[in-house]
Design goal:
Length: 227
């Protein structure tokens, strides 16, 4: 696993004044975790985005704060709804010997026979899966080979996936992940995908899983983000 390091500073600016940081190319954030008291930080936005493109929310990141290293995952990034500029970052500090729960993106690989033969279209019903693993064992993505899908109705369930024995998939295993649907217009295809994804999500939500604790400074963060 490639090692990624990001240097940040402890933040003293809070409330409305954080908008001044963003104008200088700095994004406010917080570090929190099961075994650490939440504390505010500030990070160079360009440096963070460059690394975030590589690690996503599942790659381990070494956060250096005044020469002290914190192993973290990028737990959440908030963006401006209009400009899409980065507003706030939550870093989850982890114990490398304790398993964590997070969501891993799904990536389709191969060309489905149904698509190649113009029989149907492949719909992705879930874009990410919730998994549990040690921080060093978290996959950056879960690849799904769709090349064998040949006819309308062919489906790949979560239970069909081959993942490392070090990774436990928490999303309902009987949920449909990918399926072949009839050729339709782009608008109809989008509607079918949304309806199928909603049904799958509802089924998965019915199975409770142990989530990640929210930052203790959540209300303060929401106040900062809104400024």
């Amino acid at each position: 696993m490639e090692k990624h390091t990001l240097k940040v500073s402890k933040r003293t600016v809070t409330g409305r004044k954080v908008s001044q940081l963003r104008k200088k190319g700095i994004t406010p954030g917080n570090v929190f975790g099961k075994h650490v008291k939440s504390f505010p930080v500030e990070v160079n936005t360009k440096e963070f985005l460059a690394i975030f493109q590589k690690v996503g929310e599942t790659g381990l990141l070494e956060l250096t704060v005044h020469d002290h290293v914190h192993p973290v995952l990028v737990h959440n990034v908030s963006y401006h709804p209009v400009t899409s500029k980065t507003l706030h970052i939550d870093f989850l500090e982890v114990n490398l010997k304790e398993k964590v729960t997070t969501k891993v993106p799904v990536k389709l690989v191969g060309e489905a026979l149904a698509v190649k033969d113009k029989v149907g279209v492949v719909l992705t019903l879930l874009n990410e899966l919730e998994v549990e693993a040690l921080p060093m064992d978290l996959p950056e993505k879960i690849e799904v080979d769709v090349s064998h899908l040949a006819k309308i109705g062919d489906v790949i369930k979560i239970s069909d996936l081959k993942v490392s024995e070090k990774v436990k998939v928490l999303t309902l295993l009987e949920s449909d992940l990918v399926k072949v649907a009839p050729l339709v217009s782009k608008e109809a295809e989008k509607m079918v995908a949304e309806e199928a994804a909603a049904a799958t999500a509802a089924a998965a939500a019915a199975t409770p899983t142990e989530g990640v604790p929210a930052p203790t400074t959540q209300n303060a963060q929401e106040s900062e983000i809104s400024k």
